[in-house]
């Protein structure tokens, strides 16, 4: 790798005020998908800036919140598919100390000098950092890779159109790898984190209604309890067969852990060396883990164990005071966390079959949404380029096999057939909450690190 | 027993228009305890009518909704404690076809010519029938028994003051038996039903909170499910230990059936002869019973089995759509139906101990309210007097050991030490719902049968 600073980094320093102001302007333009606020305007603004930087831009999907595809074909040997989003979460009912769409620069208790704005962290800040990285590369020798940047405006409402778009445009989106620019540090002093994959997730609503098995068709007075069974009890009994005494998923045919590759095991061993159980519990706000286990096993579980979570449970009378009834329906809203190796449909069917085998075949299971885990090998050039970029900036990244939270990166692996990575230097936080922020220094570090990463990915010099 | 009609019955026929109009006037006076409407006015009206009929009347408890004690000491050898209530349920949001406080007389699909009014059935109609029965007896030879009539104005909000009043006034309320005038027929053509007792009931709220056992102190993102346990799962697991596969209460130390006396068994045998399982299920709106059993066992269970009912179950996200969280609390609102032999505190403690023995000692149990079953032997003179009265009117009553629904008649047995009965001819229905009604002929039959009963109880001529 070239020694830093590169001419591109020098360009960024020279144009920093302008980049910072354009980023703030973008943050001042509301784009709340859940409330259909400002999406068209934001997309238009973005299109203009992309075209000014040489992209060929096309709109896909709904006119009200289009998916943008910005393409730079520079005839380079490597092509990168990039993911971005221009919509943000609502801000209603949140206690912001500066207005969420003012994008003021001020001292933030965690971030130091920061932009405080909805979208600063998630993900208009990173979007603008990538836009400016492209500009800086073009101004200092040209883009080293071809780019296909897909930018959606409905991530916060579930990326409704994105899977269909990726499916339909598979050929046009052909690339060597996929990438999402995003903060990877807690502060500029901590090691950036690289994660080789994400878990999948599936929403399942379990509904038990009165029926041929028994239960009252209409809500019944509970004095009839000795005679008439209850959907609430039936749901309780059915659910309790799905987990063991430690609340771990325990469904016929589903493994206690997903697929752990040898390289994952090696990474987990390394992470286990510094795993601090007590610190972790304090951060989680819990007195104990589901099970006491040695550090390596705890890490195996958070990254590779499936979990069945009850998000909501409701039946009968939900008010104050008493109301002596037998309900005619009971519901549990659940999610299943899917590690690599557990497929959506198979897992859903295994849970259904497990219940049916125990006499609970009448319980209705409705899948809300679902997608599988996604994983990229450590050796993938896109990952190695990111590692190289971090090292060039003087950081040794922490590498984790799997992110416990779910992200639909299966779209990269399963739909587009691409290895993927996500990252960039810099720190930001407060997604979805009040006083969302990104550090000003972090934003500049992100922008610079993205140019370093693109250069590394282009020449595969690592 | 004297042959009917007695001079008292002839008096009732002669004064019927007046009795009917006074009853309608009483029904036109709203007395909704839950909304604190008209209680004082209703009590004052009642007091006036009682005093006009020779009673010494005293107010007890809260001035806003006093308990009335009306006493007639006629120097008779027998004294009867009578229970009544002057409050009614609210009518809001109900679809009445004639105004609830107009007390119109009209044709009712079930009752024929009926008064339609809130309280017609439950229980201002029976109250007025008893008032007029007293009047008729006084006008035709005098009351044959001393009466102590306690009339409360807060039955519909849980009889808050009554237990304390009965405790405090035990000496003043000394009597030979207790009695509540109430309809016992479905129509004037069906056999009146005598029930020798009522079940008790206890409200228990089970709460599982995060704590030393685990679980997140604050609602947590469900991606942490492989590590952090959930109060929702814990409550599901704890509850599922309290019932068997048939949803029957299955708690260490609690019997599957309460105390069944030999005379109860004989009565159940007789009832089993005409028990129709399919008809019963149709009436309940259920496809099957908790268990298929022969008729005798089904009757044993509805009357003598305890039951633990889930009235309401709630945890986490109760709205529409999804919300991927681990809740920090879960609650189940339950009631326990108590047959004779199961005491309130002991049953509560048995459930608590059962859970603690299975490692769920952290789950909080809060008792909302609770009272035990009450039972009177078939041989009690008050019961025999009621049977004799029905027979004098040409009816052979159906006798059941226990009413499945709960009524705090333990106040008669356990607090006042009195055997008890409740009944009277006539049909009425619609308690708590719209178009509550009592049949006009039924009201007259109730009034007459009450005079017959009082006469029978006085002379114990049966």
So, CATH architecture of the largest domain in chain A?
A: 3-Layer(aba) Sandwich
Low-confidence stretches of chain A: none
How much strand content do the residues of chain A show? Answer: 15-25%
Which fold name corresponds to the CATH topology of the largest domain in chain A?
A: Aminopeptidase
Structure overview:
The structure is a homodimer of 462-residue chains. The first copy, chain A, is of the alpha/beta class and 462 residues long. Chain A folds into two domains: 7-196 and 376-459, Zn peptidases (Aminopeptidase, 3-Layer(aba) Sandwich); 199-258 and 305-371, Alpha-Beta Plaits (2-Layer Sandwich). Helices cover 32% and strands 23% of the residues of chain A. In chain A, β1 and β2 (67-72) form a beta hairpin. The radius of gyration of chain A is 25 Å and the shape is globular. Chains A and B meet through β9, β10, α6, α9 and β11 of A and β9, β10, α6, α9 and β11 of B.
């Amino acid at each position: 790798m070239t020694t830093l600073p590169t001419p591109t980094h020098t360009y960024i320093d020279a144009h920093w005020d302008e980049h910072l102001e354009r980023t703030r302007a973008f943050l001042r333009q509301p784009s709340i998908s859940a409330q259909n606020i400002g999406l068209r305007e934001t997309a238009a603004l973005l299109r203009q800036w992309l075209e000014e930087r040489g992209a060929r831009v096309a709109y896909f999907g709904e006119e009200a919140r289009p998916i943008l595809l910005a393409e730079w074909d520079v005839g380079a040997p490597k092509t990168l598919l990039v993911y971005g989003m221009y919509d943000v979460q609502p801000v209603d009912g949140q206690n912001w100390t500066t207005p969420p769409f003012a994008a003021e620069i001020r001292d933030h208790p965690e971030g130091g000098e920061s932009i405080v704005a909805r979208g600063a962290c998630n993900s208009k800040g990173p979007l603008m950092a990538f836009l400016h990285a492209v500009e800086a590369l073009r101004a200092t020798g040209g883009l080293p890779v071809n780019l296909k940047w897909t930018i959606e405006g409905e991530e916060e409402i579930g990326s409704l159109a994105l899977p269909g778009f990726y499916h339909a445009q598979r050929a046009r989106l052909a690339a060597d790898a996929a990438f999402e620019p995003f903060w990877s540090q807690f502060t500029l002093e901590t090691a950036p984190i690289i994660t080789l994959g994400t878990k999948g997730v599936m929403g399942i609503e379990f509904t038990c209604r009165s029926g041929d098995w028994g239960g009252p068709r209409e809500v019944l007075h509970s004095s009839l309890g000795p005679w008439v069974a209850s959907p609430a009890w039936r749901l309780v009994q059915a659910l309790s067969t799905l987990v063991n005494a430690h609340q771990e998923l325990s469904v016929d045919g589903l493994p206690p852990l997903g697929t752990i590759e040898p390289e994952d095991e090696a990474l987990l061993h390394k992470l286990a060396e510094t795993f601090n159980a007590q610190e972790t519990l304090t951060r989680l706000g819990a007195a104990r883990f589901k099970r006491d286990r040695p550090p390596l096993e705890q890490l195996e579980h958070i990254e590779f164990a499936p979990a069945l979570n009850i998000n909501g449970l409701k039946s009968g009378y939900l008010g104050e005071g008493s109301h002596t009834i037998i309900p005619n329906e009971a519901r549990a809203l659940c999610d299943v966390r899917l590690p690599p190796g557990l497929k959506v449909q198979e897992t859903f069917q295994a849970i259904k079959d497990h219940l049916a085998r125990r006499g609970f075949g009448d319980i209705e299971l409705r899948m809300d949404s679902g997608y599988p885990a996604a994983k990229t090998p450590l050796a993938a050039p896109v990952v190695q380029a990111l590692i190289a970029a971090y090292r060039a900036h003087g950081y040794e990244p922490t590498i984790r096999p799997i992110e416990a939270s779910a992200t639909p990166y299966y779209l990269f692996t399963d739909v587009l057939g691409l290895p993927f990575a996500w990252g960039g230097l810099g720190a930001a936080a407060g997604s979805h909450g009040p006083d969302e922020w990104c550090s000003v220094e972090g934003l500049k570090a992100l922008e610079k690190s993205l140019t370093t990463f693109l250069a590394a990915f282009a020449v595969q010099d690592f």
